[in-house]
Amino acid sequence: MGTVVLSELAAGPYGRPDLEEFRAQALRPLLWSPFGLATLSIVGVYDVDRPELSWLPAILAATVGLLASRAARYGVVPAAVALLVGLGLTLAVAQFLYPGSPFAVLYVLLVVASAAILGPPAGLAAAVPASVAILGLRLFGDEALPPLVANTALFAVGTAAGISWLATSPFRTALDWLWSSYAQLVAM
Question: What are phi and psi of 139, to 5 degrees?
């Protein structure tokens, strides 16, 4: 039959290769999000006086979408990292180009997406650079990122990291239980 490998059980559901398809299915719809962001940046924030400002975030978002789609050939993790880092940089550029806008609040979506695709530890890890980006945008002054928007964004990022960890805990426990039962059955 087989033996139960304790290191596989201790790895948790997000470290096991058997859940790669599950993670890939969570990632596939998100690979289209940069194209939606590109469309939104052209239609939603078009500046008649300076149209080039509308095109730059759109081009960046579309490029992120293409790069993340290409990175999907190498696996879920490279594609997810390319997508999340690229969208984070695109949000920073959009916030910088449109001072006073609430783009920084959208960093919360990156935290939730990384927790959903790569697991709760990745969601907590994504909260750190998102918070650093928000605080970094604050260095440009109140015009670039108003204090209320920055505080709201920081609160949302921290809350999303905590809630995604707590919300997925029962799911992780169920997967661990299911995996250990399967491993015991194979060992018989």
Answer: -65, -20
